[in-house]
Write a structure and sequence with these properties.
By secondary structure, the protein is of the alpha+beta class. It has a domain at 56-98 and 110-146. 16% of the residues lie in helices and 31% in strands. It contains nine helices and 24 strands. The strands form five sheets. Strands 1, 2, 3, 4, 5, 6, 7, 8, 9, 12, 13, 14, 15 and 16 form a 14-stranded mixed sheet that branches. It has a three-stranded mixed sheet with strand order 10-17-18. The structure holds iron/sulfur cluster (2 copies).
């Protein structure tokens, strides 16, 4: 039975064997017989639209005694909740900001998730505090905040549900972009990183537990426990990490047809033991993807994550030769991460590989096979991916490198997820 201490000792001796989940699954598909003696750690990962992401910030606003306490707070026009600590007469405002909260001036364009990324990018943020009639303003960067942590109430959900619309009118929902999810049964919106997902590889919490060290958006963080609506069949995690050290490419805002949401990425090491190995052998083909109508969200059909991630393209490409420079470019207008400009093509640091551009562009200037799923005898095309498997793989590689070169120390949990 491997423990974190034993693995950490092997890392120091240069003897540890660490694979990313993608490398590990490739070995399994090649027919290799892997035992706990062959590998110490598998690094798993997920990157997706995760609504249950918030930040707790401590923001300097004015001098001591300038105001008693904040009644409301706006950060780049996005409302945050003052508190929990009132910080009476300190001139500092403590605030909780949700990644899915829209800004007042551009609710479909900008929200908490966008602001999290801008903070991590080192950009200036406008702060406006109403102390009960009197307004105080300041401009801050992440460096000015003495406390800035991301906390998630629900992340790394083991497996999601794919959605389609059985009705004939398009439905505006957070599971669609532009003008909504088209029906009847014309397109599928999907989420989840399948065989790379941490809880897909350790659903019983044999290795992951309270206090497990992880990466959140590239920064060191910890598992707090299970998250909201977590169940033994469909577990998820609650995690936290300091925003300092995060990489903006793993996070940000995501515009849907029903408002803004938030991208978050998590990488989790799983220590290989006789207990964890059977679940680590799970492949996309084994991971079921229930399909539900967006109106009632009751599953009525089923695909698998192989439909999403096997034989499909992880990344989406732009072919400038096919672009005719439309006056009103729908991709520029609706790309959920503002990653596309007619003048510059796809900004890879922003692109989420969601695939929405494939259908938004009438000239088929974007390339990428997103896959299809057989729903009651009809092949329904996947038109939106709310998880970015390429980025999840990248973060699991980063964690592997950090473990091997000693920048990341494995921790044994202090409590169980169960
Ligand atoms: S819609 Fe397509 S063809 Fe038209 S400008 Fe945009 S990318 Fe180019
Ligand atoms: S895949 Fe297309 S629509 Fe999606 S983020 Fe990238 S450029 Fe934007």
């Amino acid at each position: 039975m491997n423990t974190a201490k034993e693995v950490n000792d092997r890392i120091k001796e240069g003897k540890a064997v660490v694979y990313t989940a993608e490398e590990f699954k490739r070995m399994l598909r090649a027919g290799e017989d892997i035992t706990p003696r062959d590998v110490d750690v598998v690094t798993t990962g997920t990157c997706g639209v995760m609504s249950g992401t918030a930040a707790v910030l401590s923001i300097p606003v004015a001098g001591r005694g300038a105001f008693a306490r904040a009644k409301s707070v706006l950060l780049n026009g996005v409302p945050a909740s003052p508190g929990p600590c009132p910080n009476e007469n300190l001139g500092i405002v403590e605030a909780v900001l949700y990644g899915s909260t829209p800004s007042i001036s551009g609710p479909m364009e900008y929200g908490g998730g966008h602001l999290f990324r801008e903070l991590v990018e080192g950009r200036e943020i406008d702060v406006e505090v109403d102390s009960g009639g009197k307004i105080f303003e300041n401009t801050v960067t992440l460096e000015d905040l003495e406390f800035a942590r991301i906390i998630t109430t629900r992340t790394s959900v083991k497996n999601y549900t794919g959605f389609l619309n059985k009705g004939s009118d398009a439905v505006r929902t957070i599971f669609s972009v532009a003008n909504g999810l088209k029906g009847p049964c014309k397109e599928l919106s999907v989420s989840g990183c399948g065989e790379l997902n941490p809880l897909e590889n350790d659903p019983l919490g044999e290795s992951i537990g309270v206090g497990t060290g992880i990466l959140v958006n590239g920064a060191p963080g910890y598992v707090i426990g299970t998250g909201t609506r977590s169940s033994p069949e469909k577990p998820n995690l609650s995690v936290f990490a300091d925003m300092r050290g995060m990489n903006p490419e793993y996070m940000g805002g995501f515009r849907t047809s029903d408002g803004v949401d938030c991208i978050t990425s998590i990488a989790v090491p799983i220590i290989v033991t006789e207990d964890t190995l059977p679940n680590l052998k799970i492949l996309d083909e084994d991971v079921k993807l229930p399909i539900a109508d967006i109106h009632d969200r009751i599953p009525f059909a089923e695909g698998s994550y192989a439909d999403l991630w096997q034989g499909t393209d992880m990344e989406v490409y732009f072919d400038p030769a096919r672009c005719i420079g439309c006056d009103d470019c729908e991709v520029e207008s609706y790309c959920p991460t503002n990653a596309f400009l007619r003048s510059g093509g796809i900004d890879r640091a922003r692109c989420f590989n969601c695939g929405a551009c494939l259908n938004l562009c009438p000239e088929r200037a974007f390339k990428g096979n997103l896959g299809r799923i057989d729903v009651e005898g009809n092949e329904v095309p996947i038109t939106l991916r709310q998880s970015n498997r390429a980025r999840a793989d990248e973060l699991s590689h980063e964690l592997k490198e950090m473990i091997l070169d000693g920048r990341f120390t494995l921790t044994d949990p202090v409590g169980s997820l169960r």
